[in-house]
From TrEMBL:
InterPro entries: SLC26A/SulP_dom (IPR011547)
Pfam families per the UniProt record, alphabetical: Sulfate_transp
One Gene Ontology CC term in the entry: membrane
Domain SLC26A/SulP transporter: 51-86
Organism: Clitoria ternatea
Primary location recorded for the protein, binned into one broad class: membrane
Lineage: Eukaryota, Viridiplantae, Streptophyta, Embryophyta, Tracheophyta
Subcellular location as annotated: Membrane
Annotated protein name in UniProt: SLC26A/SulP transporter domain-containing protein
Top-level lineage group: Eukaryota
Topology in membrane: Multi-pass membrane protein
Keywords in alphabetical order: Membrane, Transmembrane, Transmembrane helix
TM stretches of this protein: 55-78
Amino acid sequence: MSPLTSLRNVVVVVGEGAVARGQGAVVEEASRGAVVALCFLSIVGKERPVHRLGWLIRFISHSVISGFTTTSAIVIGLSQAKYFLG
């Protein structure tokens, strides 16, 4: 399954849940975000083979990649905590 298909499926599920709760504005915002994300993914997907810059990852240490991933997860988790806590 491609990333574009996965993103489309997520937006459909989120949109259906929001409509069921009567939150039409959420659906419109999710749709706009999905369109922007799909455009970005398609541009990046088409440019990636042209640049072939994957070899640069060899110069980034494992600890830097691990720290970036962990920090990203913490930031995303904390930003979503307000929705879980109400």
